[in-house]
């Protein structure tokens, strides 16, 4: 153990079980540790490094902006912030964007927007938001309350009130929740990421859409993990044919720097007024410049490449010894292995491949531009790691 590990274990709050790897540098989908060992990265910093690490175009965009002005606060106009908002609206049909610094912060904004709309327009006194069981929406006290997993709640009572959790796939429960005339919004992930990489079925997605439409309930889609090309479309809801009123996104948007965005559609575009909400760092011009370089490269052609790599993964892994099943969408992949996932990860890591877990599954979130040759090499290592006889 080098001093990096010792110092980190001594001084960092004990909130993460770190993998025993000290990353010092990287390029694209390759990472290097203290000893110079090379790893193929199939996690991209949890779906953050959309174009891998030390990506040339992204670095150039960020450093050019650093040389002009890195931060101004939102009291002034800057070019990158407005341009990024415009691009996000063009790609989604949404009308307005609020920038924060994380997924949780984007979701906090969505929750505030939904509550304010409920109070302003529908005259609801104590609005309720329905989310799904097994969902994940963040770590702040309010987004924890939104998260439909009891074990995250236990230690942190009292949580923010005003949330109910319904069972994914159960349309009856959805209608039951909608009979409560205080229901302001339904918030869902298109693929439950932290929950095990479980996609919503098309039928259930349509049922949610219909309930929202029929009862003037806002539809909030949490695209913090699924957004910005990861699903093979710009947003995953576009694949499921949903028409959200609010979309949140974060992880992959900044290409490696912190940013979160809450996109407001036609119904809610006018809900906020000056002073209603804010974030000092939100829309930071240096981060926004990097995000523009990510978004402008997500062309139809590029997204077809994401879809093609996704198919390579499914074809390579499906039916291999020790692999019970594959789930997910685009370059968000869950693998149900016979061996416990941590064992699979440890062996892959020894052999130079870094993966993640989600619940009991192995989870892959490679960079969207991972070269085919690296991806195939990594999958070979992963197949070996999952094989009970190896
Ligand atoms: C990661 C994640 C969040 C939280 O994002 P942070 O940036 O960690 O606050 C929220 N929702 C979903 C779906 C996520 O995957």
What does this structure look like?
The protein folds into 2 domains: 3-54 and 299-386, Alpha-Beta Complex (Aspartate Aminotransferase, domain 1), CATH 3.90.1150; 69-295, Aspartate Aminotransferase, domain 2 (3-Layer(aba) Sandwich). The mean pLDDT is 97. Strand 16 (356-358) and strand 17 form a beta hairpin. A 7-stranded mixed β-sheet has the order 4-12-11-10-7-5-6, with helices on both faces. It has a 4-stranded mixed β-sheet with strand order 1-2-3-15. It has a 4-stranded antiparallel β-sheet with strand order 13-14-17-16, with helices on one face. It is built from 14 helices and 17 strands. It starts with a helix and ends with a helix. Helix 3 (56-66) packs antiparallel against helix 11 (285-295), helix 4 packs parallel to helix 11 and helix 8 packs parallel to helix 9. The chain is an alpha/beta fold. It binds pyridoxal-5'-phosphate (PLP). Pyridoxal-5'-phosphate (PLP) binds at residues 102-104, 107, 136-138, 189, 193-194, 222, 224-225, 250-251.
CATH-defined fold name of the largest domain? Aspartate Aminotransferase, domain 2
Strand order of the largest sheet: 4-12-11-10-7-5-6
Beta-strand residue percentage: 15-25%
Helix share bin: 25-40%
What integer is the average pLDDT? 97
How many helices does DSSP assign?
Answer: 14
Give a quick account of the main beta sheet: strands, pairing sense, barrel closure: 7 strands, mixed
Give unreliable regions as ranges. Answer: none
> What would you call the structural class?
alpha/beta
For the CA atoms, what is the radius of gyration?
21 Å
So, CATH architecture of the largest domain?
Answer: 3-Layer(aba) Sandwich
Strand elements, count: 17
Distance between the termini: 28 Å
Task: Name the CATH homologous superfamily of the largest domain.
Answer: Type I PLP-dependent aspartate aminotransferase-like (Major domain)
Tally of individual domains: 2
Global morphology: globular
């Amino acid at each position: 153990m080098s001093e990096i590990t010792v110092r980190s274990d001594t001084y960092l709050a004990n909130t993460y079980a770190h993998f025993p790897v000290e990353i010092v540098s990287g390029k694209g989908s390759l990472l290097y540790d203290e000893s110079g060992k090379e790893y193929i990265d199939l996690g991209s910093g949890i779906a953050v490094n959309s174009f891998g690490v030390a990506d040339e175009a992204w670095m150039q965009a960020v450093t050019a902006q650093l040389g002009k002005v890195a931060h101004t606060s939102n009291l002034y106009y800057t070019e990158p912030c407005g341009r990024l908002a415009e691009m996000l609206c063009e790609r989604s049909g949404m009308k307005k964007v609020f920038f924060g610094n994380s997924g949780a912060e984007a979701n906090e904004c969505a929750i505030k927007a939904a509550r304010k709309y409920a109070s302003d327009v529908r005259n609801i006194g104590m609005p309720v938001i329905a989310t799904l069981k097994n969902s994940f929406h963040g770590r702040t006290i309010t987004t924890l309350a939104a998260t439909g997993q009891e074990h995250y709640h236990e230690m942190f009572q009292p949580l923010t009130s005003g949330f109910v959790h319904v069972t994914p796939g159960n349309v009856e429960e959805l209608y039951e929740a909608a009979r409560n005339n205080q229901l302001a919004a339904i918030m869902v992930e298109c693929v439950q990421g932290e929950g095990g990489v479980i996609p919503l079925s098309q039928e259930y997605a349509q049922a949610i859409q219909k309930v929202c439409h029929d009862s003037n309930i806002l539809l909030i889609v949490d695209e913090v993990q699924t957004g910005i090309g990861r699903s093979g479309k710009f947003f995953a809801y576009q694949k499921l044919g949903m028409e959200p009123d609010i979309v949140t996104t974060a992880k992959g948007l900044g290409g490696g720097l912190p940013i979160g965005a809450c996109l407001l559609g036609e119904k809610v575009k006018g809900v906020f007024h000056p002073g209603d909400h804010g974030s000092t760092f939100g829309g930071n011009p240096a981060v926004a410049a990097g995000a523009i370089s990510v978004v402008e490269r997500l062309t139809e052609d590029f997204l077809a490449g994401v879809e093609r790599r996704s198919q390579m993964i499914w074809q390579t892994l499906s039916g291999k010894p020790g692999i019970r099943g594959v789930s997910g969408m685009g370059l968000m992949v869950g693998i149900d292995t016979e061996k416990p996932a941590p064992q699979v990860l440890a062996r892959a890591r020894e052999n130079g491949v870094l993966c993640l877990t989600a619940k009991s599954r192995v989870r892959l979130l490679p960079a969207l531009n991972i070269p085919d040759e690296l991806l195939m090499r990594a999958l070979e290592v992963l197949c070996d790691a999952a094989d009970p006889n190896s």
